[in-house]
Amino acid sequence: MTRRQRVEAEPAYVLHARPWRETSLLLEVLTLEHGRLALAAKGARRPGSQLRPVLLTFQPLVLGWRGAGEVRTLTRAEWAGGVPLPRGRALWCGYYLNELVLRLLAREDPHREVFLAYDTAVRALARGEALSPVLRRFELAFLAALGYGLDWPQAAAGRYRFEPRAGLVLLAEGETARSGEAILSAETLEDVRAGRWSRPETLAEVRALTRRLIDHALDGQELQARRMLRELLE
């Protein structure tokens, strides 16, 4: 049985909101200490509700809630300020981050590192930073937190293929990559370890890698936001 909870002030982001009952919203939120939760914002759709203009996606919030069970009751929502709404392609990248978290992070599975990586990514999108490095950094941090991270070779040489069961495997000299494989060069591995994202080759190779990792984690399910991003960014 889920114990009854009362939380007064927790950093959080709204990942998704939908109408619930006559005048309320059902929220999916990502929190710092409690992971992903479902919260009922009672009366949030009423005209003049003070909650309605606060419960926005991609905005840092401070939330409070109480209750037990699958859906808790929202008791407090305040804007933490300082982050403009991402625009254009950056906004669609934000939707992609939200869908990724909703699909892969189970409810009530706390991961501080996921919240911190998400917060960093949203702020970078709002500042107008280059989109591909923002997405790749988040994907790698998110997947590592969920147990899908890789053991990066410390003294990389040659080229490596990604295999779902074995991780990164060194290609033999003269061995050619199979169609659709994610292949990483030693230079890309060094860039990832050093946090360098300026080489187009690094971005392309890591993108192929994270796509394979995410596909493996999703077990054949498709991300709607990825399809939209493909049309916008490719």
Name some characteristics of this structure:
234 residues, alpha+beta, de novo design (two linked rop proteins), 2 domains, 3-stranded antiparallel β-sheet, 36% helix, elongated
**Main sheet record:** 5 strands, mixed, barrel
Regions with pLDDT < 50 over 5+ consecutive residues? Answer: none
CATH topology of the largest domain: de novo design (two linked rop proteins)
Number of strands: 8
What does the average pLDDT come to?
90
CATH first level of the largest domain: Mainly Alpha
* Count of DSSP H/I helices: 6
Q: Looking at the structure, what is the overall shape?
A: elongated
Quick overview:
Keywords: DNA damage, DNA recombination, DNA repair. It is built from 6 helices and 8 strands.
What does it look like?
The structure is a single chain. The protein has helices at 89-104, 112-126, 131-145, 186-194, 200-218, 224-233; strands spanning 5-20, 24-31, 35-41, 61-67, 71-79, 159-163, 167-170, 183-185. It has 234 residues and is of the alpha+beta class. The strands form two sheets. It has a five-stranded mixed β-barrel with strand order 1-2-3-5-4. Helix 1 (89-104) runs antiparallel to helix 2, helix 1 (89-104) packs parallel to helix 3 and helix 2 runs antiparallel to helix 3. Residues 10-80 form the DNA replication/recombination mediator RecO N-terminal domain. InterPro entries: ARFGAP/RecO, DNA_rep/recomb_RecO_N, NA-bd_OB-fold, RecO, RecO_C.
